[in-house]
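G., the chain you wanted modeled:
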Amino acid sequence: MFRMRISDAKTFKSVIDAISAVVDEASFIVGPDGIKLRAMDPSRVAMVDWEMQKTSFDEYEADGESKVCINLSEFKKILKRAGKDDVIELSLEEGSNQLQVKIRGRYTRTFTLPILETAEEEIPEPKLAFNAKVALTADDFYDTLKDAELVSDNVRIEADEDGLVMNAKGDVAGTKIEMKKGSDALISIEVKEPSKATFSLSYLTDIVKAASDTSDIVTLEFSTDMPLRLDFRQRYDGKLVYLLAPRVEVE
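Predicted structure as C-alpha cells:
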C-alpha cells in the first residue's frame, strides 16, 4: 500500500520523538502527497499537528490513503538503531497488519511492528484567532522554560508592544524573564492587543525539548486565557505545530 525511503535518519527520528511528547500511540494518515497526523494527548491538554510531504523523502509511493496506528515507544526503539549514515525504509503491503521497517547501512536490518486498531475520532483543525505572535529561537525558549521550572510548575506568558515577559512563581521563589522588542532575543513580535495566559511547564518543556531537535525557530501565538500555538519551522517540506490548553488561574 505504501513504501517510503529517507536518508536523513536523524531528522526522522527527531520528528517521531517530538510527536511522542504528546501521544503514545499515533494514527498516521499516509496518502499520495505524504504523511500527516493530528492527535491529542489522553488528557486533551495538548494537540500535535504534523505533516511531512512526499518531497521530503528520497523515494515515496502510496496507493490511496491508509491509516496506520502504531505504538511510538516501540517504533522509537527500532529507529534508535539507525545511525546517522543509515537509510530508513518504511513499507506496508496490501492486507498486511505489520509495518515493515528496514534500516540500510553496512548491512540491512528488517523489523516488523504491528498495526494497532484505533477508535480515535478525527480531530478537525482548530480555527483560532490570536492577538500576539512572537518568534524566537527554540533554544532560547527552552532555556527560559528551564529557568521557570526552578521555581514553579506553571509559567505565565505575556506580550505587549514592549516585548515578551514570562513569569513563574512558586511557594518559595519566583522569576521574571523579559525579552524586549528590538533585542537579539526576539526575532519578531506582533501584538494586536496585550495578551497573557498561563501554561503547564511539564507539558510545555517536554514539547519544546523534543521539538527543538527538529527546528531552530519557534513561533508562539496566543491571546488572553486562550490556547498557545507553537509552530516549529521545519527543515523539510512539512510542519510541526502544537496547541496547548491554558491553565485557569485563581486570583
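The helical segments are 9-20, 72-79, 138-149, 201-211.

Shout if anything looks off.
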